[in-house]
Amino acid sequence: MSTCLNANNQNEVLPPPVLWAQRKHLLYVKIALEDCKNPTIKLETDKLFFRGKGGTENKEQEVVLEFLKKIKPEESRYAVRGRGIEFILIKSEEGPYWSRLLKDDKKHHWLKVDFNKWADEDESEDELNSGTNFEEMMRQMGGLDDSGGGDLSALDKELDSDDEDLPNLE
């Protein structure tokens, strides 16, 4: 569910692009709003509220994600980065994969699967963890706090494969 204000005029608050993926015990959510400084983020057991300014036009954007099932906000983490805000949300119940992220089953143009992090439910833990140590990532993310969720500078290269050095063109 997204929140839009003044839907009939130019002061409309649009939802930012949101990407998501999951594992048995957690969800990955990325709000893909570049150069967002000091966003307002409220994480509850059944929803995530985001409001921030950024992107190429530096416009205010807002979204409320009402989750299909409950999460553990006290164990979940997030980090504000240059390319967006990344969340690791711990599910309240480990078990079967969620059929979708949101409570409503409506298709939203701004919500997409993050295929870079997606894994099928039947993949083994060894396959899922090859190349990424999720416990270390959670430790480095720190706690949810007013400073933006913790210092993630050490994880920038590990999590953002788009920033890898590209070979020279010949």
Automatic annotation (TrEMBL):
Residues 159-170 have a biased composition (Acidic residues). Residues 122-170 are annotated as: Disordered. Residues 13-102 form the CS domain. Belongs to the p23/wos2 family. PANTHER family: CO-CHAPERONE PROTEIN DAF-41 (PTHR22932:SF1), TELOMERASE-BINDING PROTEIN P23 HSP90 CO-CHAPERONE (PTHR22932). This is Prostaglandin E synthase 3-like. It comes from Limulus polyphemus. The gene is LOC106466815.
